[in-house]
Amino acid sequence: MKETFGSTCHGAGRLQSRSAAKKGVRGIDVIQALAEKGITVKTASLNELPEEASSAYKDVNEVVDVTEHAGISRKIVRTTPIGVIKG
To answer: What string of DSSP letters covers 6-67?
Structure first.
């Protein structure tokens, strides 16, 4: 509690900058990859969507494991995304 003020990670964190992610992925590819996982995407611009590609982020399982092993938080439930809204 003292070290984190009662807070823990709210996401996985980025591996790539937004501009780097845009260079390597197309928006339609992000939509298709997420659709295969049953995730609906709504976006104002296909050009901005690559910023949210899974490959642009750290592995959330590893991040959660680190916070648990550090004593920052405790795993109690696994959630599954159903949608992404960008824009």
So the answer is: T---SS--BSS-HHHHHHH--HHHHHHHHHHTT-EEEES-TTTGGGG-GGGB--HHHHHHHH
Query: Which residue numbers are catalytic?
Result: 10
How confident is the model over 38-72, as pLDDT tens digits? Answer: 999 999 989 999 998 989 999 999 999 999 999 88
Q: Is 48 left (phi over 0), alpha (psi -120 to 50) or beta?
A: alpha
Does the reported pTM lie above 0.70?
yes
How far is the C-alpha of 26 from the C-alpha of 49, rounded, in Å?
8
Three-class DSSP category at 85: strand
Distances (CA, A) of 73 to 13, 34, 54, 62, 76: 16, 28, 23, 13, 9
